[in-house]
Amino acid sequence: MCAASRLLRHGVIAAFIALSLCPAEASETHAYYARRVWTGQGSAIDDAVLIVVNGKVSAVGPRATTQVPEGATRHELDDQVIIPGLVVAQTSLAGNDDVERTLSPQNTALDGFDFYADRHEALAGGVTTVQISPGSSRLMPGVGAVVKLGTDDPGRGTLRRREGLRIVLESDALSPPTIYEPPVGAVSVDRPLEQTRPQLSPSLGGAVAGLRAVLGAARRNTAGAPTDEADLVMAAISSHLSNGGSVRITASTAAEIRLALDLAKEFDLRAVLVDPSDLTPFTSRFGEWKSRLQGVVLEGRRPGRITNPSPEQIEERGEPWDEVKALVDAGIRVAIHAASDQDLEDFLFVAGQFRQGDLTVGQTLSAITSASAEILGVADRVGSLKKGLDADFVVLSADPFSLQSHVLSTYVDGRRVFHRETTDPTTIVQADAIYTGDGEVLGDASVVVRGHTIRGVGERVSAPRGARVKRFPGAVIVPGFVDLGSGLGIGGTLGDDIALETRLGEQLDATDPAIEVARQGGVTTVLLGSSGGATTPLVAFKLGDDTRVVSDPAAIRFRLSDNLRQDVPNLERTLERGKAYHEQWLAYETALAEWEARQKEAKTEPEASTEEQSSEAETEADSEAGGEEQPAPEEGRGRGRRPRGGDTENGEGPPQRRGRFGGRGQEPAPEEGEQDEDGEEAGSEQEPQEEEAKDEAPRKPQTNAGLEPYRLLFSGKIPAFVEANRSDAIEAALELFRGKHQLRTVLIGVEDLARFPDLLNGHEVTVIAGPSMMVTKDRERLNVPQHLANEGIPFGFQSRATTGVRDLPSAVQYAVSQGLGPADALRGLSAGGARLVSDSPSFGSIAVGRDADLVVLSGPPFELGTKVLAVMVDGQWVYEKESDR
What are the beta bridge partners of residue 709? Predict the structure, then answer.
């Protein structure tokens, strides 16, 4: 019960006061479920949950064994990772300039820190707690502090007002300015102006000697209230040390480090060694440092910066992580800080570079969380995710220090203070192996998906910062499977008689329950046509939630039954009619291209003179006034009008006759004695010669919707799917479709090819196998796709099913068990099958620029026991197998 609530016993007024003063009793409880939680202490917890109550960590542990309070708000983070808020052991965020005096222990960095400033960059880097430094260019510039970011409450945000008395032994701090102190009162002979006085010696030895004197005096200081500057310095140092305050000594070279350690030992300081760069001479003595040092703070290298140090500097300084493993192994706490405050947004990368010092992920993470908090003396509030500590945590897209790991959200006291928004999300899908569908296998690789397209494939792929990472450890990724003959997509049976001009894509039903079932088997693209009829269009579409049409029509399917005497002549007439229609349009398109070229050439000729233009305009006006109303030209047809008479374009000569597709031809002259349309006798000398006809656009052929698909077929844009089972039907199909018309031909149901592979006779055709992969002829069991593979005949698969589409991969798996190679099987079920539809399909393989159709398998494809874990269609997850949680 809060203190104000005790006032309830004193009446209504007191009750009102109590309600206004007491915090809300209702607790805010949140449960964050993540793939992994790193607590900052050792290894991670897989499939974990973090429970936060009123801004504090209540519990953290495995999802299966951690009890979640009833009514907690659930946050499913899926494949994301949680780590503690990052703790930076040194920054210059205080913003205060260095003081004038070389000894200024009374100066506090907290006085220069703005709690209301924008800290977006640091929070975007996952930084939630920082040490703020008083300065760097004086021997003793003041006392630092520890504050939290993401809060505008100075009381709540201040973790330590006085963290560490800073001493800087580097050369840049050993050249302080001289001090001038004007006299108080009037200047006289007895009180002359004094010269400026130098401060402590600019040499390292002289500065340390001065420090020894000052620290010794401070240890012995028992004086009362300070009366001058010296007393203020002594009092500030004495107060800090007597209250157990630490001393942060910045020492880079071996000489500076040695003197720093001597000071710590001589005056029994709780010392923190900062930015040592030459630790090699001390490696054998690290064991002694454990009792002498509170910790070591190392400066990270600035990310993405290129510098040109001298060979001497390289030899002198080395790398900041050279001795980090030896320090950790000696039991010395190690923290990492950024070289510049500008690098706080990339602090995970800065710290990750220390992995080059052979630190584990857990040890490196500790250096920017728990170990850093311990060095700063704030481990009872931040730095770890354990019960009772502040709920400062960071949500990452991947494990810390992974190349694809980026900060997605940052929380301070359980409140989200940063969230990375993106309008075009990119997903990185990772697995142990990727089978591209074209025979290539990539180990430990990733697929980058943006929108519905694959943007990257490989072991280390480019991806925008903040991309979501979806991992499937121990799994493999294959292309979405292709079924070249199915019956799903309309929620029922498609009738036998389907007109060739029918757009089946317009009749698809996205709510067909068979689609959802088919996706569970990994099938992502199918072809649909009627179950009967001699000729039918086929549509190719995706099994996503929107059933996106890939091509319509994707092919024309023809059928040769047992009655070849009737079927072959009928098909031949059909093809001849379609070919004639195609050639008519082809001639028109050729003539149109020639006419457009002439028009373009004419525009480049010099313009007619003004008089000629005026005369032509008058002639045109007269013609319009006396002629009949002209009909609107047909689509694609030129707007020129045939002149009634007058001069030709050259001023003389007979008019020209128009060919069928706009070609020029000489108009036959009327014979002598004939009359023209005005009743005048032809051939009269007084009769003016008729003007040459204008160059009109060719006449567009009449469109026949039922024949339009043949234009695609005969131009090679879509294939002919020909169903022929028996050997004589196969021979007839080859002669008609390949031999006579040279069409792209895909044979279906060619069971006899397994017995008579020579039937193809060198014809360039492809084959669709299934639904039966095994056939028995004359008591001999034959594996159809295996024979096709051995004969070098490209093939794909079909199911001829609805919900049974899901079992197509299982049927192919059986063929693999009977001799079909797994690589050939996968190619036929993905990339090879897609190429039967198009020479350059957008689906069927995992490659940059292709549709993002992915199937995640629990093991190698077609292995017994391998299961479908997840399916992506056009960049969207449409199926994920429920875990066994």
Answer: none
Tell me the pLDDT tens digit for each residue of 540-579: 999 999 899 999 999 999 998 888 999 999 999 999 999 9
What does the alpha-carbon distance between residue 265 and residue 292 come to, in Å, rounded to a whole number?
7
Query: Strand locations in 581-697, DSSP E?
Result: 656-658, 664-666
How far is C-alpha 132 from the geometric centre of its chain's CA atoms?
Answer: 36
- Share the mean pLDDT of the chain: 83
> What are the tens digits of pLDDT across the range 829-843?
999 999 999 989 999
Residues 252, 277: contact at Cβ < 8 Å? yes
> What tokens were used for 271?
């010392």
Both tokens of 794, joined, read 């490209």
The Cα 551–Cα 539 span in angstroms is 6
Closest CA to 440 of 428, 457, 454: 457
Say what the pTM is.
0.70
Q: Is the CA virtual torsion 160, 161, 164, 167 positive or negative?
A: positive
Show Cβ contacts of residue 517 under 8 Å, excluding neighbours closer than 6 positions. 803, 805, 806
Checking if the pLDDT of 421 tops 90, the result is: no
Residues sharing a CB contact under 8 Å with residue 314, sequence separation 6 or more, in sequence order:
none
CA-nearest of 699, 723, 560 to 635 is: 699
Q: How far is CA 72 from CA 50, 57, 75, 880, in A?
A: 11, 13, 9, 25
DSSP character at residue 710: H
Structure-token pair, residue 222: 């028992």
Q: How far is the C-alpha of 263 from the C-alpha of 496, rounded, in Å?
A: 96
Q: Are 434 and 442 in contact (CB under 8 A)?
A: yes
User: Is 60 exceeded by the pLDDT of residue 629?
Assistant: no
What is the percentage of the chain residues whose pLDDT exceeds 90?
53
Residue 489 in tokens: 């997509």
